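Follow-up to my earlier ticket, as requested here are the two runs.
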Amino acid sequence: MSAIVYPLLLCGGTGSRLWPLSRKSYPKQFTKLTGDESLFQGAAKLLNGSFFGAPYVITGSDFRFVVIEQLAAAEISPSMVLIEPEGKNTAPAVLAGALALAQHDPDALMLVAPSDHVIPEQDKFRAAVETAIPVAKEGQLVTFGIKPSRAETGYGWLAMSQPATEDFGPTPQPLKGFVEKPNKEVAKQLLDGGEHLWNAGIFLFSVKAIIEAFEMHAPDVTKQVRASVADAEKDLGFTRLAPAPWSDVEDISIDYAVMEKATNLTVVPYNGVWSDLGEWESVWRESEPDETGLAMYGPATAIDCSNTLLRAEDPQQELVGIGLENIVAIAMEDAVLVADIKRSQDVKQAVAVLKEKQVAQAETLPRDYRPWGWYESLAVGSRFQVKRIHVNPGAALSLQSHHHRSEHWIAVEGTAKVTVGETVQLVTENQSVYIPLGAVHRMENPGKVPMVLIEVQTGAYLGEDDIIRYDDIYARGQGAKG
């Protein structure tokens, strides 16, 4: 019987190379890029059952409820959800997860995996993990390398100490070293040589071995992360890492902090389908383009297009491409990207430029996600705003009031439980309620299905920070949105 392996799912990235679909306000791991479930849900399901224990997850505060909601939809209960005060790259995140797991089981094995990769051959990948368990139990730091299919310059590579077996079977062997993202010529040499793998950023080790490696190779990181974990606080079932020591942690990847310095390294080749979906070219590749290289998603029309991705996210619009070749075109409600498909890695530069210009679309989506659901603005004027508000079953907005606006709520789906002052009433479809300026109020969804309202705000100031909060089941403080 194999040992229990606890996954650590890393959910801290922003996925800026997949802008405009992925943004800081709702990054790619939580979106449905290639199917009916999010990338995060796919990763959680991949590492569920068999010899896996309940996962540990590390993410940012803004996404803690998204994590719980998406895991619940996948029928998975986490062991722990750790909240980073701020993103500090993979090294501090991995160490925090290892220290938290060590408190539960100091001899446990931990599988570190990004939450935004696609690995459809679940049994094949689990078999590779199971093959690595014996060497991980012996104290080796195991990394999984992907059999390369092209001269890829967007990934780091792993140098094997000996050629892989003919079928690239998952046979553990000593890792010779790491190769930084190469240029095209070097990447072709690595591919042709047959002794290198793509670095997937997936690791297996005992918590004891990785903690010892951090203490040896990254003592300053270890000191600060230990302090942050030691002073962590429980919050509605989440574990909030202490912000003061965390703020002094170096922003560094686990490769730079530990792996490139350690000597107890093992690599396991994986000869299966894998993609990190790191940029639009990889999404095009995973979208099963036709014989001309054309891939489409959503309401899109193509005429004489080849090697092109057309992706339309808004059902109210139609994306049309004519005579396009080697192009990616992504149409959102509030932003459109058109780029040479070979320049997909450069989308991150566009996001940086938009941030410098203080363009809201650089980081935020039209749909604003909250612990209770989401809302989006439908129309905005100088003294009014119309929103669609979606409240999840059993969820509730905070008990609140506003200094500068009044509101009309019209139920269009489900039933709302509405509190206005001392009055509590149920508002069903086609019914409405008025919230006077200054009135203390709350909306809840007592039902088993989502509840949707149209909210019409009127007033001199309609900003989201105009909230006086009296009670909140999500323990958000004053000034928090929603």
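Run two:
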Amino acid sequence: MVTNSKHTVYKTQLAPGVSLTCVNAGRFKSSSITINFISTLNKKTASANALLPRVLRRGSINYPDMESLSALLDDLYGVRVEPIVRKKGEMHCVGFFVDFVDDRYLPGGENLLEEATKIACEILLYPAAKNGKLLDEYVQSEKSNLIDDIRASINDKRGYALDRLLEEMCADEAYGVGRLGSEAEAAKITCESLTAHHHHLLSSAKIELMYCGLASPERVENAFRSALKDLPHEKRNEAPKTTVILEPNSDAPRRVNETLDVTQGKLTMGFRLGNFMKDPDLPALMMLNAIYGGEISSKLFQNVRERLSLCYYVNSMVDKYKGIMIVTSGVDFSKCDDAQNEILSLLDEVKRGNISDTELTAARRSIINSINSALDRLGGLEGLYFDSTLNTPPYDPVTLSEKVLEVTKERIIDAASGIKLDTIYFLSGNGEENEAEADDDT
């Protein structure tokens, strides 16, 4: 059990490879549970992973269609069961997010935690099936929806450019695989292959269970033990590891240019974090990102966008699992080189320690406000603690935010010192005008 200034966190093992984390969160009117299969991201199985919770959500053995299942959930004061698919480094995390009204707010004193856990686990263990196979009708319908979602990614040019950068930069790494997999692999899925994949995950994948609410850990543990009593108990895989590449493969960064019918260029740059990732200092990495490009107070936003007007948007982000930093920006086609040069120049400023006290204060404030904002939402709370369980070593989100206050300029310089540009992706267009796309001009 871990106690911080905001929560008491209880962790236990229900079975080999099946972990439960309970986060005491009594200020919400709702509670949540999540059921997560943790497997290695792989281009052959990513689409099956993404499809499976969508198909399972269509019905269970006792409630075999959406109509009967939805009626049950409505009777349980609107319990919500939603598929989740998350990419964390080279870990693929799929399952269900379940939220429900806390017992304190129910008129009859019902034990909704037990009921919500029971139905979520029934969907997981005993989905609607025929002759031992998932229903072909559901598989084909949800497969079509998944393919539509994969195809639709190109409509979000900002996200598309990010995906394409990672595909190129990490072409020989699992990290280059998209969260939803590929259209080609999705098209191959049949009810027989998805049924086999379901059985494989049930019997071998690492399982992370999360609860956020006010129920006692003992009650939550008993609810899951009862609902998962038929879960196969074979030896499960260890939590998958993310391969961290410290340096780019070549001295000169690789450049990839692509043309689509767009009116705004998308300049996306991928960096490796270097030897820092051998023993990463997470608070320093968070401060580095906030100062460089992660917040509106950052060097990138204040200079590349505001002072020089070289782009419509610009920001940086880091993957703490993979050891990669990404800078994304929307630019006029003619300003791509100028924006790129300024982005790299500002990174050099951070490496040289050109960081003001004002920037340090603003970065600390932004990080702490961001964490506190997430902690004030049930989904955000779950997300922070889920991330923390996957990190090596695990950390406490609240304690982490407090450690941000202790980060010195020297630690930030150390975090930035080994960063090297790996790949540049530029999406340009053939339009005659260069106008800010409506959803990116912020």
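The only thing I checked on run two: The domain at 2-227 is CATH 3.30.830.10 (Cytochrome Bc1 Complex; Chain A, domain 1). Let me know what else you need.
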